[in-house]
Structure formats: C-alpha cells, structure tokens
Design goal:
It is a single chain. The protein is an alpha+beta fold. About 35% of the residues lie in helices and about 25% in strands. It is built from five helices and eight strands; from the N terminus they run βαααβββββαββα. It has a four-stranded antiparallel sheet. A four-stranded antiparallel sheet has the order 5-6-8-7. Helix 2 runs antiparallel to helix 3. The relative contact order is 0.15.
C-alpha cells in the first residue's frame, strides 16, 4: 500500500482521501494519484498544443519572408506567438500539477473512493457491488489508466468527473483512474476484489483480468 501526504485544503479529512473514517471491517488496500506530467501530455495534449504553436511560428516566419515583411516585424510577431505558446502550455502544466496535488484514489476491500477536483474538491464512492467490469490500459513502461464500467442506472456526470473519465458505455459515464505510473498494481488489486464481490469472475474488456499485464496497451506517447 502506498500512502500520500495530505494537503492543507484537505485538513478536515479524517483519513487522507476519505470523507469519513472507514467502518469496521473495511480497510485500505491501495492509494495513489495521477502523475502530473502524464496528465499534461496524455489527457491535456500539451505536446500537440506545443506542436501547433511551432507550426504557427514557422508559418509566420515563412509568410513574412515571402511577403517582404521587415525582419523586425517578423521578429515581433514571432515573439508574440512564443509568448502565447508559453502562456498556453504553462497553464496546461499548472492545471495538470493541480490534478496531481488534489487527487487521491483509494481502493478498499469494499469500494473505490475518488477524491477529485482542482477548483472544487469532491469525493465519490464507487462500491464494487455496483461495478460491471474494469479495463486497464497501459504502455510499455507500465503507465496507464483503469476505467470503471458501472451498472446501468447510475447517473454520473462526465463534466464533474473530467478529466478522471474515459467516456460513455451504453449511455453511462465511465469513471477512470488516470495516468498511474504503475497501473498493474492497483489493477491486480481491483481484479481480486471484484472477483470476491461477485458470484462470477469479473469480465474485463481485455481478457485475463487475473493477469493484468495482458490488458489492452495504450498507444505510446
């Protein structure tokens, strides 16, 4: 079990990541948080945005040269583009850092607890009894996400969960534990807990939940 230090805005939590103390018979199996760098690159697409500004800068310089614009004017407009790109990428990195600092995922022997929210913190309890399946996606470095398919009838807001969300399945939002550096460890724990919580073995989108290493791979960055 990996534990993460509490932060000042969550001083009122009796246990880090939990809105109340665990009832008798329930205990924490794992806690973790997203990696801010992965959030910036994979979820917020910081590299794509930086690449867009690079293309914009090259286009500005080439078109200015072909149109006979003075070097000083080209340099000024290029500087403005660089400034805008720095602000945009900086804001993305700042938000990703905020996601890492304010998020704490907790897996107990009864449920998953997601404390999320950069501007407005909220805690969501997702009992294993209300889950249909989980889907692990990872890259060749062991980093990845775990998405949760809930039973129909549970109205979970995509906007509220973003960026801790994968999408919809059968009209339902799929919460997601995002950008974990060692995604296989919590995936194995979840597999075991879902198997015990269900009369049948949980069905993963990738076959072989018991061997989480066989799950679907995410595309390399």
């Amino acid at each position: 079990m990996s534990m993460y230090p509490d932060t000042p805005e969550h001083d009122l939590e009796p246990v880090p990541g939990l809105p109340a103390r665990l009832p008798e018979g329930e205990h924490i199996l794992w806690q973790g948080a997203p990696d801010g760098g992965l959030v910036a690159r994979r979820v917020l697409k910081s590299r794509w945005i930086a690449g867009y500004f690079v293309l914009l800068l090259l286009w500005n310089m080439a078109s200015g040269f072909l149109d006979g614009v003075s070097p000083w004017a080209i340099a000024f407009s290029s500087g403005a583009i660089l400034t805008m790109s720095g602000i945009a990428v900086g804001l993305i990195e700042l938000f990703a850092w905020g996601v890492q600092k304010t998020t704490l995922y907790t897996i107990t022997n009864k449920r998953i607890v997601m404390r999320i929210g950069v501007a407005l913190s909220a805690t969501f309890n997702l009992p294993f009894a209300r889950m249909l399946s989980v889907d692990m996606r990872k890259d060749d470095q062991g980093r990845g996400d775990i998405s949760l398919q809930m039973k129909p009838g549970h109205r979970l807001s995509f906007v509220v969960f973003w960026p801790h969300v994968r999408g919809w399945h059968a009209g339902n939002t799929m919460p997601q534990l995002i950008c974990l550096k060692d995604v296989a460890a919590p995936a194995r724990i979840l597999a075991g807990q879902l198997a015990m919580a269900s009369s049948r073995s949980p069905v993963l989108a990738a076959s072989g939940v018991e061997a989480a290493d066989t799950a679907t791979q995410v595309a390399a960055e």
